What we know:
Blueprint: E1 9-18, E2 23-25, H1 26-29, H2 37-44, E3 48-50, H3 58-72, E4 82-86, H4 97-104, E5 110-114, H5 120-133, E6 139-147, H6 157-160, E7 165-175, E8 180-187, E9 195-196, E10 199-200, E11 203-207, E12 210-213, E13 216-217, E14 221-222, H7 224-245, E15 255-258, H8 263-273, H9 284-287, H10 294-304, E16 313-320, E17 324-331
Parallel strand pairs: 4-5, 4-6, 15-16
Antiparallel strand pairs: 1-7, 2-3, 6-7, 8-17, 9-14, 10-13, 11-12, 16-17
Helix pairs in contact: 3-4, 7-8
Amino acid sequence: MNLKQPGIGIAITGSGSAAPVHSLDNQGLSQLVETSDEWITSRTGIRERRLAAPTDSVTTIASEAARGAIAMAGLTPADLDLIILATSTADDLFGSASQIQGELGAQKAVAFDLTAACSGFVFGLVTAAQFIRTGVYQNILLIGADILSRWVDWSDRRTCILFGDGAGAVVLQANDRDRLLGFELRSDGTQNKYLNLAYVPQPKPLIDGVTIAQGGFHPITMNGQEVYRFAVRRVPEVIEKALFRANLSTEDVDWLLLHQANQRILDAVGDRLQIPADKIISNLAKYGNTSAASIPLALDEEVRQGHIQCGDTIVASGFGAGLTWGAAVFQWGR
């Protein structure tokens, strides 16, 4: 399954993160919709979320996260060969990765967007690894960034309580020892209806006999119960498959790093895999669901707080709209 050039492995050598300054706690949210701090916290674990200001953009927060990751890796933007931006909320429908490349001054880097919603970072990690393993590139910047507040219906308490804005980034480098130990990716488009941000066409006649559709995107819609059932069933399965490919068991895992969607999902997955709560990384109380940003944002916080050490084995799993899900097993550092 893994195309690999002999002698070329991957190391994740730097991380960075960024979030908007403004936050909205549950008490403030209760002024918008009929809800309460107790109701939100007991069902999701979320206490507040960061919200982008009108002057913020995916490009600005992604670039800030990127600079932190590049510096930690001991590189400069000029050293980068490739930039992958995992996002569902690009500033430009044609893509924002090139804008980030220009913002960073990474003159030689190729840049493109990758869209897989809340699974985007894991999908991006696996994609980046293939470019290194085949010997094409040596230094890759992977960013997960989303500004979901742009696309939330703030009168819908089923969704507006969940989402926040943020960015996280990592640097992957060619390495003698391969630190990406295994992965598994999955998609099921038949379940797309349970979580989407869909285009809504508005017919517009041009001339007799010719009508086109010009419209916009509907706010995020979600069937929370179905997404929960999907996550607690499919995420442990895909993690077990990734661990099998890595020839590891759950006992070998130092950290379980799930997409930060709902604390109940994190707890349920941990229970099914029999991974202790003190190994499960969680920061969603402060940020909410930041989609593609959630895994690298949480990773960076744990690294900078000194909790994750070089050589620690991490299982990361993303899951969400598409529906998509996947897991990757890697060791931090060289």
